[in-house]
């Protein structure tokens, strides 16, 4: 067989053809790693070192990493099913909840289909939507940083396949209350999947916020997304899961990367669930720190949303980069967006440095 010519004649040599949908996706720019002496308040991680028992479980699993992990993730799945009182078939795990979210999009949407989410919200939503070739439909938050659920409903078309609801919202920290969310879920067409992303549920203290698992039980089109990355402190191990009715959960098992959740991650997640009491003491301490930071900011004159997550939000707009630079100069790394700055609640010393930067910066705003 005659080989095709090496270049298309008359044009410059070209590389492999990539899917045009990727052009709309920003190239990932790794954040500046926090120097050894800086506090990293930029990724909403748990600032505590791993619990001893969890670390032991991970180290033990590391001893057999020449073997593939348990593909069925059976022990973790059984533990989760028991804890939430759901069938094991309703649990689908993945490489972080971002991995599960990507499988959810791949399972429901392709070219021509639409995925709705609030904006600004979790930055992965538009990316995983475009990777699937589907069309992102961002719906602006209200001025106060809330999901505009009426506008999201109005954005539903016959092409809508999936809606992400982030509760509490990353990066603003705002929550959606039970009555509001139930009204929304009841109005969404039954063939549209609603994914309630509860990455920060353990930090919620507002009793009006629903637990998504109560909402999914009698709604076949509702799925709950959870992660071990935040409150449980396993961000580096990459394990998250969905609770969904069987057709959706089965689709997630088909679209997930095979053997994506390592045995180290599986065993550490099981150990974390068993060590939950000790972990929740740490979560309580972070919630107390959040209260201290929020009170401190308000005393300085900042108007901020009532965060129910492990971060706070300063809606600084075009001064966001400047604020992040001031924080970095003082030894804390925060996360600027075009609309504002998200600051994770970390070690008390780091939070205190952030508060002092915020106080000085505040004075440059009102004069
Ligand atoms: C951090 C975060 C996740 C979790 O990501 P992992 O992949 O589980 O580490 C999911 N959703 C939101 C909104 C988040 O902020």
Automatic annotation (TrEMBL):
Keyword annotations for this protein, in alphabetical order, are: Aminotransferase, Pyridoxal phosphate, Transferase
Pfam families assigned:
Aminotran_1_2
Residues recorded as bearing N6-(pyridoxal phosphate)lysine in the entry: 230
- Recall the GO molecular function terms of this protein's record: histidinol-phosphate transaminase activity
Q: What cofactor is this protein dependent on?
A: pyridoxal 5'-phosphate
CDD domains, per database record: AAT_like
Q: Does the keyword Transferase apply?
A: yes
Could you tell me the EC number(s) of this protein? 2.6.1.57
The region called Disordered is annotated at 1-36
Domain (Aminotransferase class I/classII large): give its ranges: 39-352
Its UniProt entry gives the catalysed reaction(s) as: an aromatic L-alpha-amino acid + 2-oxoglutarate = an aromatic oxo-acid + L-glutamate
What protein family is recorded? Belongs to the class-II pyridoxal-phosphate-dependent aminotransferase family.
Known partners and oligomeric status: Homodimer.
What NCBIfam families has UniProt attached to this entry? Answer: hisC, PRK03321.1
Role according to the record: Aminotransferase that catalyzes the conversion of aromatic amino acids and 2-oxoglutarate into corresponding aromatic oxo acids and L-glutamate.
The protein, known as: Aromatic amino acid aminotransferase
Q: What is the lineage of its organism?
A: Bacteria, Bacillati, Actinomycetota, Actinomycetes, Kitasatosporales
Gene name in the database record: hisC
